[in-house]
Design goal:
By secondary structure, this protein is α+β, with helices and mostly antiparallel strands. The chain has one domain (5-181). It is 32% helix and 31% strand. The chain has helices spanning 5-16, 31-39, 98-108, 128-135, 144-158, 168-171; strands at residues 43-58, 61-73, 82-93, 113-124, 179-181. Strand 2 (61-73) and strand 3 form a beta hairpin. The two termini are 19 Å apart.
Length: 182
């Protein structure tokens, strides 16, 4: 079933989040320290890349970063787990089965979806970092302040600081298929 963008992202996040009490003892940093690093992510001004026609595909969705700038974010618990793109891009979604296509058609009068965007905030614990590093040339660059504004609003949307919830795989430095965007 197709939900609004906010509902869909919230459902994905709710299914992935954990609480402070389930953070294993003895890891590099406390859950609280790592949570603080996550909610205070910034664009790393030393890790900027000019982007042209970069394609990132995950299952049935494809992001085409047509033209713009991508910053890797500061590390969290010693690992880069986020990036932000500003510029011109397109998201394409092709539902995997007829039921999803019918739902998409019901809500959007289309069996496939294509949307333009100007900002893409990615959080990941999968192969995205290696993919970006292999396809882009990172160097010091301008524009981190604007990227930081986009990160701030994305994190406001994705996190609940009072409850201190976040995906455990990002915190535990565990490679998996976690990939979320705003």
């Amino acid at each position: 079933m197709i939900f609004s963008k906010c509902t869909l992202v919230l459902l994905i996040l709710i299914s992935l989040f954990t609480t402070v009490n389930s953070y294993p003892a003895g890891d590099d940093a406390s859950y609280h320290e790592v949570f603080e690093q996550l909610v205070n992510l910034k664009a790393d001004p030393q890790k900027s890349a000019d982007v042209s026609e970069l394609v990132i595909s995950r299952e049935t969705g494809t992001f085409t970063l047509e033209e713009g700038k991508l910053f890797l974010c500061t590390q969290v618990n010693g690992t880069v787990c986020a990036a932000v793109f500003t510029g011109k891009g397109t998201f394409s979604y092709t539902p995997p089965d007829d039921i999803e296509k019918e739902q998409l058609e019901r809500f959007y009068e289309k069996r496939e979806l294509t949307k333009n965007f100007e900002v893409l905030f990615l959080m990941f614990a999968d192969s995205t970092l290696s993919e970006l590093e292999s396809k882009l040339d990172f160097h010091p660059g301008q524009g981190a302040d604007e990227a930081d504004k986009q990160i701030f609003w994305s994190l406001k949307f994705l996190s609940d600081e009072s409850a201190e919830y976040f995906n455990p795989d990002l915190i535990l430095k565990k490679a998996n298929y976690f990939f979320v965007l705003r």
